[in-house]
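Please think about what follows:
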Amino acid sequence: MEKMLNNWGIDKQRVYVILRDNAANMKKAMRDMGVPSVGCVAHSCQLCVHEGLLSQRSVANARKIVDHFKHSPLAYSRLEDIQMDLNMDIKRLQQDVQTRWNSSLYMLKSLLQQTRALSVFAAERTLPATLTAHQWELMNKTAVVLSPFEELTRDASRETAADVIPAITVLRRILSPEDDDDQGIKTMKRTLLEAAEKRFADVETEPLFYIPDTKMAFSQSQPTCCLQRNSLSRRWQRQRGGGLSVQCQRKMRLQQSQ
């Protein structure tokens, strides 16, 4: 790194910040160089997702089904025939790859879009994993929970560093409450929240992530972030196919009035 800076004639004192991944050796290298650095928010977000998915069996079953079609041209050909018979668009299932951000969410969505076709296929042939109605429901709930992480990853890739604190605060507050609709994914939500708390523990004390008044305005102890959270929550609820519950609306109005 120092050699590269020297080749470009860049003095270390002129380096404002270096964006790096979260590996320990990268952190140590930046410290040894004496230059400020910050971990990639999008990368940290995807590490949280990876930890959360380890506790969700429906994702493992989804992978088995997608792998089956990826390794069987005959199975894929039959699935496409079924899609045509059902007047569905011909679409291939997406496989998740750990190094591809949000790929697990895209895999689940691709399966959910093909629920009818896959049900017909399963009635004719054997799949490596059987998805019951309950497991389909869990897959849908998992996709809903992962959607804010996808949005955060996309926003972190195009917004400024000053947007990180509000985005992380919104994410924490979305994951915090548990209700009856969380049946079957409560452990995953807790794991995601714990991972987010751990990986973004210092986000509000990192000067590189805030401009004047941003830290105060969006700290967890301030209700100001409700407007930002409400916006993301509305988008999240639309993805679930319904509006905000009466109880949730009352809670938001109460927090805004405080």
